[in-house]
Design brief:
Blueprint lengths: L6 E5 L6 H12 L2 E4 H11 L2 H11 L6 H11 L2 H6 L1 E4 L5 H14 L5 E6 L2 H9 L1 E4 L5 E3 L18 E2 L6 H24 L3 E5 L4 H15 L3
Parallel strand pairs: 1-3, 1-4, 2-3, 4-8
Antiparallel strand pairs: 5-6, 5-7
Helix pairs in contact: 1-9, 2-3, 4-6, 7-8
């Protein structure tokens, strides 16, 4: 299916499977997977001007501003990505970021095709998130059931130790999901008003979720 040009954002709570799904789109459909988290880590590692601005926010415990997030993502949405098609993972997170993305795409005459929201039950999300392991050196993600490292407790990329983040403790996860649901409402309403929102069940193996979304794309005439 290479040659597909579809421009979508993936939405959903933490643990819904957005990153895994976006990686499948890139591998099988040839559309660019653009991840906010990956870009932030890359810019910080490169000590770029944008990376230093992000690092200052992170070090002080502040959220990266909507304006800065939009600026960083706009720089990644170059002519090649627009021509190839893209799936945005982790962006936008707020209604102002969504509006900023629309302004960027309007200038390039490459409007968004859809916002795909992955739905999942709270028990499923807790099970997925509590199994996550993160490298303390490079930030790479693993999972004790679905994405194990080659060597237990060690990162495949930099051999750094893998840890359970405080955010991935079950009690903390429940609180995070409540906060995320409240914060996501304005963003969901924004895409509903623009008639771009499509809800897809994120239950089951990632292959099943991928199949559901591909069927949606086919019904919409994007594939």
């Amino acid at each position: 299916m290479f040659g597909v040009t579809v421009r979508i954002v993936l939405l959903g709570p933490p643990g819904a499977g957005k990153g895994s799904l976006a990686s499948l789109y890139e591998a099988r459909l040839g559309i660019a997977h653009i991840s906010t988290g990956d870009i932030f880590r890359q810019e910080i590692a490169r000590h770029s001007a944008l990376g230093r601005r992000v690092q200052r926010c992170v070090s002080s415990g502040r959220l990266v501003s909507d304006a800065l997030v939009v600026e960083i993502m706009a720089a990644r949405l170059d002519r090649r990505a627009l021509a190839r098609g893209f799936v945005l993972d982790g962006f936008p997170r707020t209604q102002p970021q969504a509006a900023g993305l629309d302004r960027v795409l309007k200038r390039t005459r490459a409007p968004l095709d859809a916002a795909v929201y992955l739905t999942s039950s709270v028990p499923v999300l807790i099970r997925r998130l509590s199994g996550r392991r993160v490298c303390v050196r490079c930030g790479a993600n693993y999972h004790v059931r679905t994405m194990r490292p080659r060597h237990p407790g060690r990162c495949d990329h930099c051999r750094g130790p893998l840890i359970v983040r405080n955010d991935d403790q079950p009690a903390t996860i429940k609180k995070r999901l409540v906060v995320n649901q409240q914060a996501a409402r304005p963003l969901v309403r924004y895409y509903q008003r623009r008639r771009l929102l499509h809800q897809v069940s994120g239950a089951g193996p990632i292959e099943a979720v991928y199949s559901r979304t591909v069927k949606l794309f086919q019904r919409q005439g994007w594939l």
